[in-house]
Design a protein that fits this description.
Layout: H1 46-51, H2 63-67, H3 113-128, H4 133-146, H5 148-171, H6 175-178, H7 194-216, H8 223-239, H9 244-262, H10 271-289, H11 320-347, H12 350-378, H13 384-406, H14 419-439, E1 445-446, H15 452-461, H16 465-477, E2 481-482, H17 487-503, E3 517-523, E4 533-541, E5 547-553, H18 558-564, H19 572-578, H20 587-616
Parallel strand pairs: 1-2
Antiparallel strand pairs: 3-4, 4-5
């Protein structure tokens, strides 16, 4: 029987008893939510059933499909009493008594047990992050029992994490200091220790097994198996610092997945599970390409439909736990839209831009609804774990609103009106990180979107010097990776943007459009012994309509140059947090609390009024005037969330 405490990670002797791996189950929320009194309708149209929304059963098309501009797929034909097939009661087995997994794991010897334990008790919970518990602690661990290739990759990841810990111990350094990175890649040519050698052996065995099965009969490899293996292979290469291999892995497997789906090949698992796995893969692939380390000629997000098939949740009907899974469906469409926006504008096709703009309106309205529901649940009596996850989800929504509102206005000037919102978001990110430290920080890597996204967006889009510098300091303090996002690398790359923009700042404090830059990607130097360089493009177009391009080597001395613009060694906001004198309490604290309450009330009223206008078609969010008042976001009451930084990845 599985225990709650993870066993010590020590070499094990010969395997004496069969090993059974049972997927972890998340603890239930303390508060129970009940469905509203209206009965659940099960006879709606096929489109509403797929979207999991209530249907009015209108014919020939229901009102909800017409209102949402969806294709109504009609209704199923209900079998008559004589056509219905009844299952004898003796054949019905309660779900709770069905076996979770096979009793033993074939091919698992005593030397592999520590690697399996390392993945089960350490890697899988860390990978889950805030949004992927069902995938990491459910789908992957279930696949360990059912597929030898998945099992080998799981053992490879477990062994690699032990190898990184051993290397840090031998060097008497922390894991952050000694872990692989794009600047010091691990691989077959530089085996560090016996655990690293074992990880490479299991990785090679898993990849070869998949290749042999694809050669024999690709139709027998299920979509779920292929998707899970792709993510595990990419994570293994990312942990080794070998980001170059990740793009080729994602592209090759994406082509195979499209072929599988086109020919309706093997898709073991329920339809809901396959949909969830596919969206997990899409989000992971997009986040890898937004990390600035994986550059593709045709990014994944350029091939994705930008219309979300999932309606926003409803407070009291959709449980807080279900929001995290539904968010991935909405998030994949929204991130693809943000990634495609600049290319659509470059086409200069009026009709295409108009159609694309209409989709942005729909996504913007949905993002507003998401924020309202999340904030309602944040005021409920939920446990701390649920609140912590929902706070991060809220920041995602807020930053996505900012992107959707400003995506079509050139030169990033429209983001300047969100300075106060960025300040509040920064405070929330800092509070979220403190809570994460109290909860326990990951040692290695998480799968999906986390705190690095909003912080990098603040550093890139907010032109207030102290705010963006503190965001960079917070990024640098993160000790774990979030997918392909390496915090130290991200901080240094975005710092290059800050340094160049600070050099062009006017005496009034304004950064003109001609001095605004975007960090695009990581590139190699011209010579073999040159270190990696950053590729930066100007936000301002020249007379020929082309942006200026700079390729400059990364320089740690930027950390000393950037704060010097303000005449101090550290940013002002950082001084406030490191001052020896504690903040004074009293009138100023109460004044800040009253101000936060007013800001929260005004923000809620503004959100409601703007939402009503958008529903009536009176206002277009992405074409608002630059001097329009912004949506205020109070950090004292409206908890954390994340940025998508996606619009700047091209």
């Amino acid at each position: 029987m599985a225990t709650n405490q993870p066993p010590p990670l020590v070499p094990a002797g010969p395997l004496l008893v069969p090993v059974q791996l049972i997927p972890r189950r998340n603890a239930r929320s303390k508060q129970r939510f009940y469905r509203l009194s209206k009965p659940k309708v099960r006879s709606g149209c096929l489109t509403c059933k797929t979207r999991r929304v209530k249907c009015d059963e209108g014919k020939p098309a229901c009102a909800r499909c017409i209102r949402g501009d969806f294709v109504c797929d009609g209704y199923e034909t209900q079998p008559t009493k004589h056509e219905a097939v009844l299952v004898p009661p003796a054949q019905v087995v309660p779900v709770k008594f069905l076996p979770l997994a096979p009793a033993t794991l074939p091919g698992l010897d005593g030397h592999s047990v520590p690697y399996l334990d390392a993945f089960r008790y350490h890697v899988a919970p860390e990978l889950s992050g805030s949004f992927y518990m069902d995938f990491c602690e459910g789908t992957i661990l279930t696949g360990v029992h059912q597929d030898d290739s998945i099992r080998q990759l799981v053992l490879a990841l477990g062994a690699l994490t032990l190898a990184i810990a051993d290397d840090a111990r031998d060097k008497k350094q922390s894991i952050v200091q000694s872990k692989p990175s794009p600047l010091k890649v691990w691989g077959p040519s530089s085996v560090k220790n016996k655990n690293h050698a074992a990880s490479l052996k299991h990785y090679l065995k898993g990849v070869q097994g998949l290749r042999e099965r694809l050669k024999i009969n690709p139709a027998l490899v299920s979509v779920r198996t292929m998707t899970v293996m792709t993510i595990l292979m990419a994570l293994f290469e990312i942990l080794q610092g070998n980001h170059r291999s990740v793009d080729s892995i994602l592209k090759s497997v994406t082509a195979l997945l499209n072929e599988h789906l086109a020919h309706q090949r093997s898709t073991e698992g329920s339809k809901d599970e396959i949909t969830s796995v596919q969206h997990t893969f899409l989000c992971f692939s997009m986040m890898c390409q937004y990390s600035r380390q994986i550059v593709s000629a045709i990014p994944i997000y350029m091939q994705i439909n930008t219309v979300s098939a999932t309606e926003p949740p409803v407070f009291g009907v959709d449980l807080p736990k279900s929001l995290l899974g539904r968010w991935r469906l909405f998030n994949s469409a929204m991130m693809a839209y943000i990634g495609q926006a600049h290319n659509v504008v470059a086409l200069k096709d009026t009709e295409t831009i108009k159609s694309f703009h209409q989709r942005g309106r729909i996504l913007y309205k949905q993002a507003l609804s998401w924020v309202e529901v999340i904030r309602a649940y944040l005021k409920s009596d939920l446990d701390e774990d649920h609140l912590h996850r929902l706070k991060l989800l809220e920041i995602h929504c807020v930053v996505s609103q900012i992107h959707l509102d400003c995506i079509f206005i050139p030169c990033d000037l429209s983001y300047d009106r969100y300075e106060e919102t960025f300040k509040a978001l920064l405070d929330d990110c800092a509070a979220w990180l403190k809570q994460q430290v109290r909860n326990g920080v990951p040692r290695h890597i998480t799968l999906g979107e986390g705190i690095l996204l909003p912080l990098s967006g603040i550093a890139r889009l907010c032109r207030v010097h102290d705010v963006r510098m503190e965001a960079l300091y917070l990024i640098q303090s993160v000790t774990w990776q979030e997918g392909a996002w390496d915090p130290q690398f991200i901080a240094l790359g975005e710092l290059g943007t800050v340094v160049m923009e600070e050099r062009g700042r006017e005496e009034s404090g304004f950064i003109p459009a001609s001095s605004r830059w975007l960090w695009v990607s990581n590139v190699d130097g011209e010579k073999e012994d040159d270190g990696p360089h950053g590729l930066y493009i100007s936000r301002f177009l020249d007379q020929n309509g082309q942006p200026l391009v700079r390729m400059i080597p990364y320089d740690d001395s930027w950390w000393h140059e950037a704060p010097a613009k303000e005449g101090t060694g550290t940013c002002k906001r950082q001084k406030q947090t490191t001052s020896e004198d504690p903040p004074k309490k009293g009138t100023s604290t109460r004044r800040r609390q009253r101000k936060a309450t007013r800001r929260r009330r005004d923000a809620d009223e503004l959100v409601r009024s703007r939402r009503n206008k958008y529903e009536d078609g009176e206002v277009t969010p992405v074409m608002d005037q630059v001097n329009e008042s912004q949506i205020n976001y109070s950090s004292n009451s409206e908890p954390e969330g994340v940025d998508y930084g996606g619009s700047d990845s091209e």
